[in-house]
Amino acid sequence: MLDEGDEPMDPEQLRADIFAQREKEEDIKKRIPLSVTVSIFSVNCKDIRNLYAGKYQSIIEKETKLIAQRAVETNYSLRNQFD
């Protein structure tokens, strides 16, 4: 996350963050079971697990789109310079 006054991350930093987010997503999937048995009750944890994993997936998608957007902007800028 960027605070006010922070410089935007370059594509390599975004790429590294994407891999870190994927690791966090996999860690959540490993650490939270699909269900837990408490006494005679079975507690479904699948929904909360998928919710948290989905948040990491959303971050990954947004950062990937940001990289693509910056690539298009850079390409446009370079094309204008060559013209």
Describe this protein's structure.
The chain has 83 residues and is mainly alpha-helical. The protein is built from 2 helices and 2 strands, in the order H-E-E-H. It has one domain. It has a two-stranded antiparallel sheet with strand order 1-2.
CA-CA gap between termini: 36 Å
Radius of gyration: 19 Å
Q: Kindly state the number of beta strands.
A: 2
Count of individual helical segments = 2
The proportion of residues forming helix, as a percent range, comes to 55-70%
Portion in beta strands: 5-15%
Secondary structure class reads mainly alpha
Give the uncertain stretches in residue-range form. none
Shape: rod-shaped
Summarize the biggest pleated sheet: 2 strands, antiparallel
User: What number of structural domains do the residues give?
Assistant: 1
The SSE string, one letter per element, is HEEH
- In round numbers, the mean pLDDT is 88
Largest sheet: spatial strand order? 1-2
